[in-house]
Specification:
Rossmann fold, 10 helices, 12% strand, 7-stranded parallel beta sheet, 2 domains, 7 strands
């Protein structure tokens, strides 16, 4: 492996329901009141879409003007929640990133958040120097589940073969992005939005208890033969 593309919330950054709360408050600000059937339907859709571009999720619920307003409300809510409760890394995440980079693996931190929220996370955790590259949906034509974020990381970091990329995330959209990009390791972690079954269904090649286990997986992984086929692995 030469590049590891790691998700933020739920993967390297502990979520603690902050994202779901921000979504719920954002759609409530647009008039979809909590306790209504419409609010429940919207939240069910949002939970299924976790990992995708936030503005695209809102576009799937509202017209463009209302989607933009909802996205701004989400950013405000998320900021306020961080102000009240803070942010913390998933245990072992910072050490995992350090191990990967120390072994020569370049790290890209990916997200479905807009640039403003991504910057808030990196500022709060002091993580600007933890990665070789950071990308968000505003950097690409299409956000997750399309492969553009991972392929953009490959281009910017000079990857010579997409099979030398590892993708790690906590949602089905993360897994789809990794598979569509051609990454040979698409690791789902159990610290975020989606469970083991959903991650495997979306194409995870490995299931890890957390991102802390990723270095042990990819630092010992040899380059696969082009015709090699592997079955999903579960690491407990």
């Amino acid at each position: 492996m030469t590049v590891a593309c790691l998700d933020l919330a739920g993967t390297t950054v502990a979520d603690d329901d902050t994202v779901e709360t921000a979504f719920a408050e954002a759609i409530a600000a647009l008039g979809t009141a909590p306790g209504t059937a419409a609010h429940q339907r919207a939240m069910t859709h949002i939970r299924a879409s976790r990992g995708g571009s936030k503005i695209e999720i809102f576009r799937s619920l509202f017209d463009e003007a209302r989607a933009q307003a909802a996205n701004m409300a989400f950013q405000r809510s998320y900021d306020q929640l961080v102000d009240r409760h803070g942010l913390r890394a998933v245990p072992g995440a910072a050490d995992a990133i350090e191990r990967l980079r120390g072994a020569g693996v370049r790290v890209c931190l990916l997200t479905g958040f807009g640039r403003t929220t991504q910057a808030r996370i990196l500022d709060t955790l002091g993580w600007w120097d933890h990665a070789d590259l950071t990308l968000c949906p505003e950097d690409v034509e299409r956000g997750r589940p399309w492969p553009d974020l991972v392929l953009t990381a490959a281009l910017r970091l000079g990857v010579d073969d997409v099979r030398h990329i590892a993708v790690c995330g906590d949602t089905a959209n993360d897994m789809l992005t990794g598979r569509r990009s051609g990454a040979s390791v698409v690791a789902g972690v159990l610290t975020g939005a989606h469970d083991r079954a959903r991650l495997l269904t979306a194409g995870a090649t490995h299931i890890l208890p957390s991102v802390a286990a990723l270095p042990d997986l990819i630092l010992k992984k040899t380059r696969p033969h082009p015709d090699q086929r592997t079955e999903p692995s579960v690491i407990n």
